[in-house]
Design a protein that fits this description.
The protein is built from 16 helices and 20 strands. By secondary structure, the protein is α/β, with parallel strands linked by helices. The strands form six sheets. Strands 6-14-7-8-10-9 form a six-stranded parallel β-sheet. Strands 3-2-1-4-20 form a five-stranded parallel β-sheet, with helices on both faces. Helix 1 crosses helix 13 and helix 15 crosses helix 16. It is globular and about 70 Å long. The two termini are 39 Å apart. Bound molecules: NADP nicotinamide-adenine-dinucleotide phosphate. NADP nicotinamide-adenine-dinucleotide phosphate binds next to helix 7.
Length: 448
């Protein structure tokens, strides 16, 4: 490897961040990378978003571990950009910066009753059952008979499926213990998944849809009439429609819960006195506008009793001070990953393109960004600043009293969690609170 000539900071440690680090370290350009992460733990949504009953998807973390082993990599967890370090600090401490901090919030429905107790965003529920330390105080009362999930994406399916899992299905996962208990004890008999457009317009993937029909504790119900007339002009839609037709043709097997798919309906209000009691839906028809089929409300309303509503209508990016932000799209203003008007600054992943695609999509996306960064190095637009030393960031963080969790701190957490999981036949038992995580980072795991 040539002598290190450039130092790059990658902000955020999810898939886009790790794929960016991998591409930078593999470029053979003598680049050193510091990954800076707000949480004490890396892997972003692979740890805290991917559903715990999808261990295969989570196994991509092994690729991230291999990237972290490459020479020139350092991890600084528990360091929040925007609080502990600013954009200007990063440009002083590093020769270039790549923002890959994802989309931290959720889109709102903008309807009355959205904030009633019992109406949750999917992001809150997902973060809670996956052990995100900022969400462990939330009190999910799942003691209801009927739950409604708004949205037709993969996250809506994750939420509905997690709610429907049996204790036996939950047991071998790394779902947090409070979530296993709450879900296992929940008397939910029906979970309704509501799409504002038709079955052919849903954004879920076929594999994830198919899985809904393979649950031990839930039957699926689709009204065949709602599948009629759908335009199936591509293979993906055709496959999804086949799965839905299969569901519609099924006789219920008498499982304790039913997952019901409802299409062509939008929520217009969530009703209840002290908590969610029902959701009011309006029937939609589809209309082509600017080449896209959009949902247009009719005057047909229906009200559906339920004790819980999960709003799963997409994530939304949050900007960072002094970095140009496109409010409409919820992304950093960029061209192919180069931040517009900000030299030496780049972005990758959801904060670059919006909250779409699967984990692997971020590899191509991050590589595109890194290729532009490498091109800028080649053309002399990025030069090494002699003050950008490996020590400079450590000194500044120490001066500011920031207790960074280094990679060894994370591996200590990792070992503790895996050891606790091994005894129970689970991949890990997650440390869930900030205190537990920060303490875990200080200890070397005592293996069982
Ligand atoms: P998504 O795929 O964009 O789905 C959002 C859904 O919300 C769409 O059905 C959308 O309908 C609907 N919606 C938006 N605004 C609405 C409104 N005001 N009222 C009613 N419905 C509304 O997003 P996501 O499910 O949050 O997933 C994010 C990304 O992560 C996706 O790319 C997803 O594939 C990926 N992911 C993958 C997996 C996996 O591979 N297993 C798991 C989870 C997530 P319209 O289409 O009409 O806008």
């Amino acid at each position: 490897m040539p002598e290190a000539s450039l130092r790059v900071a990658v902000i955020g440690s999810g898939p886009a961040g790790f794929y960016a680090v991998g591409a930078l370290l593999d470029a053979d350009a003598g680049i050193e990378v510091d990954m800076i992460e707000r949480l004490p733990t890396p892997w972003g949504l692979v740890r805290l978003g991917v559903a715990p009953d999808h261990p295969k998807l989570k196994s991509v973390s092994r690729a991230f571990e291999r990237i972290a082993e490459k020479p020139g990599f350092r991890f600084f967890g528990n360091v929040e950009v925007g609080r502990d370090l600013s954009h200007a600090d990063l440009l002083q401490l590093y020769d270039a910066v790549v923002y890959a901090f994802g989309a931290q919030t959720d889109k709102r429905l903008g309807i009355p009753g959205e904030d009633l107790p019992g109406s949750w965003s999917a992001t809150e529920f997902v973060a809670w059952y996956n052990g995100h330390p900022d969400y462990q105080e939330l009190q999910f009362d799942l003691n209801v008979e009927r739950a409604v999930v708004i949205g037709n994406g993969n996250v809506a399916l994750d939420v509905a499926r997690m709610l429907a899992l049996t204790p036996e299905e939950l047991a071998p996962t790394d779902t947090t213990d409070p979530a296993i208990e709450a879900i296992g004890d929940a008397p939910i008999r029906e979970i309704v998944i509501v799409g504002r457009r038709g079955p052919a317009q849903a954004s879920w993937t076929t594999q994830e849809l198919k899985e809904m029909g393979e649950l031990a504790g839930a039957d699926v119900h689709v009204d065949a009439a709602e599948l009629e007339g759908a335009v199936e002009d591509d293979t993906h839609t055709h496959r999804n429609m086949d799965v839905l037709r299969g569901f519609a043709a099924r006789e219920p097997a008498g499982k304790p819960c039913v997952i019901r798919f409802l299409f062509f309906r939008s929520p217009v209000a969530i009703h209840g006195t002290d908590q969610v009691e029902s959701v009011e839906l309006v029937r939609n028809r589809l209309e082509e506008q600017d080449g896209r089929l959009v949902a247009v409300p009719t005057d047909e309303h229906e009200t559906s009793d339920c004790g819980l509503v999960f709003r799963s209508v997409g994530y939304r990016g949050v900007g960072l001070a002094d970095v140009p932000f496109d409010e409409r799209r919820g992304t950093i203003h960029n061209e192919g990953g180069r931040i517009v008007g900000e030299p030496r600054s780049y972005c990758a992943g959801w904060i670059k393109r919006g909250p779409t695609g699967i984990i692997g999509t971020n590899k191509k996306d991050a590589t595109e960004t890194v290729n532009l960064l490498l091109e800028d190095i080649e053309h002399g637009r990025i030069k090494h600043n002699e003050h950008a030393t490996p020590e400079a960031v450590e000194t500044l963080l120490a001066e500011r009293g920031v207790n960074a969790v280094l990679y060894a701190g994370w591996t200590s957490i990792d070992e503790l969690e895996r050891a606790a999981g091994e005894k129970l036949g689970r991949p890990r038992v997650k440390l869930r609170t900030w205190d537990e995580l920060l303490e875990g980072a200080e200890r070397v795991a005592e293996t069982a």
